[in-house]
Amino acid sequence: MRVAVVGTGYVGLVVGTGLAEIGHFVTCADSDEQRIEQLLQGKLPIYEPGLEELLLRNAEEGRLSFTAHLAEAVENSSVIFICVGTPSGEEGEADVSAVMDVARAIGACMTGYRVIVIKSTCPVGTSDRVEELMKQLTSHPFDVVCNPEFLREGAAVDDFLRPDRVIIGCEDVRVEELMKELYRPVLRTGNPFLTMSRRSAELAKYACNALLAARIALLNEIACLCEEYGGDISAIREAAATDRRIGPQYLHPSLGFGGSCLPKDVAACAKLARDAGLASGILESILEANQRQQERFLQRILGYYGEKIGEKTLALWGVTFKARTDDVRGAPALRIIDALLERGATVRVYDPAAGDKIRSMYGARVLVASKCYEVLEGADGLIIPTEWREFQSPDYERMGQLMRERVIFDGRNLYSPRNIATYGFKYFSIGRAPI
Ligand SMILES: NC(=O)c1ccc[n+]([C@@H]2O[C@H](COP(=O)([O-])OP(=O)(O)OC[C@H]3O[C@@H](n4cnc5c(N)ncnc54)[C@H](O)[C@@H]3O)[C@@H](O)[C@H]2O)c1
């Protein structure tokens, strides 16, 4: 099929490349001309493992192209995916203005029947709004489908090509069949193709993210109980994860979740509840608990150094909101960096993928190193906000020799407290007694 993908961010680029990989002819469009120029030169604007190779190969084989002109993409495609951002508005609502802009532009330039597929995460009712808007702009027939995306940054290519399920919210069986045909190559292993109403599909995305965020927040709250009453969250996690009713996924203690999805989608879901006059206590609490967790971790660092913080040099390993991505949106590490800088501390950072982003955000205020041990030289402490693999079995001896003071604040519980104690480190982790 001939497909257009509008928005070439973390979702759009993976979706466009993935669809090309399974044989479709895809034109990716973005209003950011610089981004398209970069893509035309074969340079990726984001880091996502495995994406570059797939993108370049599909472009070379003529199944994947890029344009800054939406009309060109719409002209050549029967199915158009909308993958633009839906950031948080002032009251937590999802700002769907980019989705509506794209719908308006498609309506104005389409020349025949089109299927509009909304992949951006949008509040319930957005597909209806898109349909209404487009009806006023075009006399050509069209259908609007809600097809929420569940890929995880860091594993996005695999998630797209081997999804747990594909969800299609749609009001017409013929369009359902067309979408099934489009996705057929990724459904060969028997993964469910779930069809439902558009409103159900819109809510399904929010429901999944709210449930995932709730698990993380709840485990972190239990980690706080461990810290206060003396328990080890690792043991408790194992006890819970081996219960088949609970399972191991999204059950890792941490300094709190970040990113561009969980916080924003839970906030949008809570706003939907408030708008409907419903009590949204649990949804609001997830966000509050997550904020508290981030603050608790930060206060542990600040409390340790006290008034002397301004004289200290702190090193960070990892800034991104999780490993295997260069995405720093909503990353808890940014709050830590800001708080340290505010108090006059010297901050050094190493991140395997986001170094350039940090440089452009902080300039000379933060030293960004290109190797992880570099930041440790003369450091008064190491903070670990992200669980990159290269941090997981470090050379403790070398670390200790480089650092002025052997202190680690681990926001991901990467190390065994007993092991690290033998190297003379003070070690603060989540949900375990400090050593
Ligand atoms: N990032 C994720 O892991 C993830 C996972 C599932 C769903 N989602 C959802 O997918 C959507 C996109 O997220 P993302 O992380 O890819 O966002 P992003 O910010 O990385 O990318 C959005 C892209 O859309 C482009 N864009 C904005 N307005 C445009 C317009 N009018 N015309 C053409 N292009 C335009 C931007 O230039 C940008 O390249 C959001 O609704 C998000 O909630 C994201």
Helix proportion = 40-55%
Strand % is: 5-15%
Per CATH, the class of the largest domain reads Alpha Beta
Within the CATH hierarchy, at the fold level, what is the topology of the largest domain?
Rossmann fold
Structural class: alpha/beta
Q: In total, how many domains does the architecture comprise?
A: 3
Largest sheet: 6 strands, parallel
- The overall pLDDT average reads 97
Rounded to the nearest angstrom, the radius of gyration is 23 Å
The small-molecule ligands in this entry are:
nicotinamide-adenine-dinucleotide
Low-confidence stretches: none
| Strand/helix succession | EHEHHEHEHEHEHEHEHHHHEHEHEEHEHE
N- to C-terminal separation? Answer: 59 Å
Please characterize this protein's 3D structure.
With 435 residues, this protein is α/β, with parallel strands linked by helices. The chain has three domains: 2-196, NAD(P)-binding Rossmann-like Domain (Rossmann fold), CATH 3.40.50; 206-285, N-(1-d-carboxylethyl)-l-norvaline Dehydrogenase, domain 2 (Orthogonal Bundle), CATH 1.10.1040.10; 295-428, NAD(P)-binding Rossmann-like Domain (Rossmann fold). It has helices at 10-21, 33-40, 51-60, 70-75, 97-109, 126-135, 156-161, 173-183, 198-229, 233-241, 262-275, 281-305, 332-342, 355-362, 396-402, 417-421; strands at 2-6, 25-29, 64-67, 79-82, 114-118, 142-146, 166-169, 193-196, 313-317, 346-350, 366-368, 381-384, 407-410, 426-428. A six-stranded parallel β-sheet has the order 3-2-1-4-5-6, sandwiched between helices. A six-stranded parallel β-sheet has the order 11-10-9-12-13-14. It has a two-stranded parallel sheet with strand order 7-8. Strand 13, helix 16 (417-421) and strand 14 form a beta-alpha-beta unit. The longest helix has 32 residues, at 198-229. The radius of gyration is 23 Å and the shape is globular. 46% of the residues are buried. The mean pLDDT is 97. Residues 6-12, 30-32, 35, 83-86, 98, 101-102, 120-121, 149, 151, 153, 260-261 line the site of nicotinamide-adenine-dinucleotide (NAD).
